[in-house]
Write a structure and sequence with these properties.
Elements: H1 13-19, H2 24-40, H3 50-59, H4 64-79
Helix pairs in contact: 2-4
């Protein structure tokens, strides 16, 4: 399944949350989330893969509620756009 926004990458969780650069609302939401997260816990975003970062967020008591809210809003953006079927 290809991403409904960039039409080139596989639309998986990591791509939707951290990698896709083809939707301005998604980019703004991600930027705000990462800025908020960095202010709360600067060490959480280490030089790790996005998949590992996602696992760290889920296991962090201080970040999991912020991450859950971010996921909710990302999924809402994706739900507003029909899936892409090549």
């Amino acid at each position: 399944r290809l991403c409904r926004f960039c039409l080139g990458a596989v639309e998986d969780e990591v791509h939707a949350l951290f990698d896709c650069l083809a939707n301005t609302h998604l980019i703004d939401l991600r930027s705000n989330f990462l800025n908020d997260l960095t202010h709360r816990d600067p060490e959480l975003r280490a030089l790790v893969s996005n998949y590992t970062f996602m696992l760290k967020l889920v296991s962090s008591r201080g970040a999991v509620h912020i991450f859950a809210k971010f996921i909710f809003h990302v999924l809402r953006i994706f739900d507003e756009t029909p899936r892409y079927f090549p």
